[in-house]
Amino acid sequence: MKITDLKCTVIGRNPVLRIVTDEGIDGFAQVEPSKHYLTPHVLFYRDYILGEDPTCVESVMRKIRRLGAFKPWGSSVSAIEMALWDIAGKAADLPVHKLLGGKVRDRVRVYNGAVRFPLDGFEPEDYAANMARMKATPENFSLIKQGVAFHGPMAGSVPGFYYGDVSSSGHRQNRGALTEKGLKHLIACTEAMKDVCGDEVGLALDCGPGMLPHDVIRFARAVEHLNLAWIEDTVTGDYVPWVHADQYLEITRSTSTPIHTGEQIYLRQNFKELIETKAVNVVGPDPCDVGGISELKWSAEYADLHGILMAPHGTGDGLFAFEYPTGDPDWWYDIVDGLPGPIVQDSYIDVWDTPGIGVTFNEKARGYLPDSDRDFFD
Ligand SMILES: [Mg+2]
């Protein structure tokens, strides 16, 4: 089998790619909507993979893997990898998990990282009310993550939260040392949310990037009695193209609160120091940023060898729990076939056994193609 084309269009705001072969089997993958600008980057790899056998996934990946980078520049490589697995699975008439060793569980736990309601304000009672709404969703999540501090609007919306230039713009990152008031506010909001969760729902917090190690240590110690699931992305995080394993090591050794990072990291090599030094308790690579499904698996196996949990960040997508993403726009669920309904039941998703990735576009998807790509599915 040979790759004859790599196409990419944008459906909604999601770059969608299609790898075409000479045997009539196509592979599909998508990039998350916040990276709607990546189409030219996906197509950059076209000449590298044309003529290759798509079922030799690793061989093809070795031609392009070194030409990617940390988020967002790992997404294109990751999507190509997943489309290759889709083809390999369809060609073997097997679900992709069978090509990787087979499933080890019939259902996977997911946590709420995307079923969201707007906050009414930024006081502890607002975070508590918001948590109560998330706890009551039909998915019945057993673990919920909320953005606090520099992740989300808290740092830019609570006056005097930190020392630094306050920016409400997403284009300029808020970062700096917390004021005493800010630290107390963060602790109070966390306590209010945990009060709602009780001990039946785990609470994880996404905090950065933008925090300083000493603030993370003070905060993590102050909330040890709450038994949080983890504190995520404090000093680094989304779109930060470095790891700072030494800073995470200092934090993790200073507290019993589990420390988590890794959603922006590209390739297993960049998890090496974090894992080998046990700088975090939980790693969270995103299959759609780290380089694809096998890259996620390699990182997971290495983390497991070191007693480190994995809770994969989910955009298109553990050993702890997978982040549950939602389709964007809403009509995304109308243009794909293969998903279970309802998708989440009691915080779990059943693992399906359809060949390939097991999710395909249906005829309705054609109606959402841009005029310039009307032949995308042809
Ligand atoms: Mg995060």
Give the arrangement of secondary structure elements.
Layout lengths: L2 E9 L2 E8 L5 E4 L8 H6 L1 H4 L7 H8 L10 H18 L3 H4 L7 E6 L11 H12 L7 E5 L6 H4 L4 E2 L13 E2 L1 H18 L4 E5 L6 H10 L7 E3 L12 H8 L6 E3 L10 H5 L5 E2 L9 H13 L3 E2 L11 E3 L7 H4 E2 L10 E3 L9 E2 L17
Helix pairs in contact: 6-8, 9-10
Bound molecules: magnesium ion.
Magnesium ion binds next to loops.
Q: Quick recap of the structure?
A:
The protein has two domains: 3-97 and 354-373, Enolase-like, domain 1 (2-Layer Sandwich); 107-350, Enolase-like C-terminal domain (TIM Barrel). 30% of the residues lie in helices and 16% in strands.
Write structural notes for this entry.
The protein has helices at 39-44, 46-49, 57-64, 75-92, 96-99, 124-135, 154-157, 180-197, 213-222, 245-252, 272-276, 293-305, 332-335, and strands at residues 3-11, 14-21, 27-30, 107-112, 143-147, 162-163, 177-178, 202-206, 230-232, 259-261, 282-283, 309-310, 322-324, 336-337, 348-350, 360-361. With 378 residues, the protein is of the alpha/beta class. It folds into two domains: 3-97 and 354-373, 2-Layer Sandwich (Enolase-like, domain 1), CATH 3.30.390; 107-350, TIM Barrel (Alpha-Beta Barrel), CATH 3.20.20. The strands form five sheets. It has a six-stranded parallel sheet, with helices on one face. Strand 2 (14-21) and strand 3 (27-30) form a beta hairpin. It is globular, with a radius of gyration of 21 Å. The protein starts with a strand and ends in a 17-residue tail after the last strand. Bound molecules: magnesium ion. The site of magnesium ion has 7 residues, from loops.
